[in-house]
Amino acid sequence: MSTATITAAEINKLRQATGAGMMDCRKALTETNGDFEAAIDWLRKQGQKVAAKRSDREAKEGVIIAKTSADNKTGFIVCISCETDFVSKNADFVAFAQSIADAAVANNVNSAEELNEVVINGAKVSDLINDKLAAIGEKIGVAKFEKIEAPYVASYIHGAYRMGVLVGLSSEAAEAGKDIAMQIAAMNPVAVDADSVPADVIERERAIIVDTMKQDPKMAGKPDEMISKIAEGKLNAFFKEQTLLAQAFVKDGGKSVGEYLKSVGADLKVTGFKRVALG
């Protein structure tokens, strides 16, 4: 049993350093005989235990940060998840998420796993997350990570950090980049154009169309060739609605996104995009 005398000042100092609760800090200092650094380690270990105990909890809330490098050639989306919107709306938690996203940009990381190993002010991101977990008592973590590189990348955050979008363009076009990012946020396209829709998505959509048509009494007895031809027409309608360049431009429904891009620059193209939302 510890015989060290723990003062209120020491408890407060540990609270300021870790964000943990007063009783947890008192216990940490007591368990470590007042050793400040050992107490920090003790709290981190407690955080890891909490993470294990809460591994079955769903962290559907959080903060999504989308940002680019200084030269706008690389974009990152980082989602720091938590369990409740009470935490996600907290200014300190938003700032915490911002600091991790800043570290992703500064270190040009390529994955969530790599980001967890990045050091911020002498501590790894994974340790900082454990500290924050111990302080707030909710399951948190780097839940989602996306990265895109292009001659120009635009970023957009929608709905109080609930969605992030990155758009890669073939050349610099800041206003167009923002417009296209907002389009992606609103319309959630599956791909840039029909040619870039994954084959499994096309086959799934085609199968749904064909099965639906075969169940329609009006199509009873129709030859498979006719059904297949009609299905291809419906699939083209799917491409028009679900691929970015074919979609109606939300800011001017009289033109498609592809036509809007051509009005900005004849050679301006979307090279890729990423869209991350909570839930």
Automatic annotation (TrEMBL):
> Entry's SUPFAM superfamilies?
Elongation factor Ts (EF-Ts), dimerisation domain (SSF54713), UBA-like (SSF46934)
Spell out the subcellular localization from the entry.
Cytoplasm
Q: Where is the signal peptide?
A: none
Key word Protein biosynthesis present in the record?
yes
A single Gene Ontology molecular function, please? translation elongation factor activity
Tell me which PANTHER family the record gives: ELONGATION FACTOR TS (PTHR11741), ELONGATION FACTOR TS, MITOCHONDRIAL (PTHR11741:SF0)
Q: What is this protein called?
A: Elongation factor Ts
Which gene name does the record give?
A: tsf
